[in-house]
Design goal:
Blueprint lengths: L2 E5 L5 E2 L2 E4 L4 H13 L3 E6 L9 H5 L3 H7 L2 H6 L4 E2 L10 E4 L5 H4 L4 H12 L3 E5 L22 E2 L4 H7 L9 H7 L3 E2 L10 E4 L2 E4 L5 H13 L2
Helix pairs in contact: 1-9
Length: 227
């Protein structure tokens, strides 16, 4: 199989707080561009389907590659009409990739369709992966034997120190680093916040922050090619 499922958020605010959030666009673009160049097809899915809000900071600080995609009408239009997680067939995919942006902390962790898709992909020999807050989608994935996917596994994701740097620590519903550790994961991070870092524990591949998307994508491609 040469298809990858990229998961994006539908959540536009910090819960009831009207402060805007959404998809951190570079985390999708930097992944999407590289896996397509590597020969993979990508389908974009969201928990509820439909429109994907963009974190305004992610467009304000967009790099050249992200700006090119922002000017791609077909690509941007696809973010207005994503498929629902409940409507996809996990058997079609070699990997699932959870993108970030703070919105995912509300609609990724407890979505049963996403959990089922990740479990099926993983148990079919595929790759489960994430970047930044996307690791929130890994928290409650259980395998067929009832164990948590992250239990005993080495993972990374947006750190508590980085929540402080982003100045939103008090807005989030939970601290991802704490929740991963609480589920038995061996959480690791780079010493310096907001610098690239990724790790692969078998077919579980994770990146720490927005600046880690390129390095985690390289690990995902390597893992898929070594299957």
């Amino acid at each position: 199989m040469s298809r990858i499922l990229a998961v994006v958020t539908n959540q536009a605010t910090y819960g009831p707080d009207p402060h805007p959030t959404g998809l951190w666009l570079a985390e999708l673009v930097h992944f999407y561009a590289r896996v397509r160049r590597a020969g993979f097809e990508v389908d974009i899915v969201s928990p509820a389907g439909g429109q994907v809000p963009l974190d305004p900071r992610s467009t304000r600080f967009a790099d050249k590659e992200v700006r090119q995609y922002m000017n791609d009408r077909a690509f941007m239009s696809s973010l207005n009409s994503t498929s629902s997680a409940a409507d996809i067939d996990p058997a079609q995919y070699a990997a699932i990739f959870y993108t970030g942006g703070h919105g995912v902390l509300w609609d990724f962790p407890d979505n049963p369709a996403l959990q089922q898709a990740a479990r099926q992909i993983y148990e079919n020999g595929g790759v489960v992966s994430s970047v930044c807050h996307g690791a929130g989608g890994l928290l409650n994935i259980t395998l067929s034997d009832g164990s948590l996917l992250v239990d005993g596994r080495t993972v990374t994701g947006f750190s508590t120190a980085e929540e402080r740097v982003a100045m939103v620590k008090k807005r989030v519903p939970f601290l991802l680093e704490d929740e991963l550790r609480g589920r038995g994961a061996h959480y690791v991070r780079n010493t310096i916040p907001m610098t690239p870092f990724a790790t692969a524990d078998g077919r579980l591949v994770t990146g720490q922050n927005p600046y880690s998307t390129k390095v985690v994508t390289a690990k995902i491609i390597e893992t898929l090619r070594n299957q």
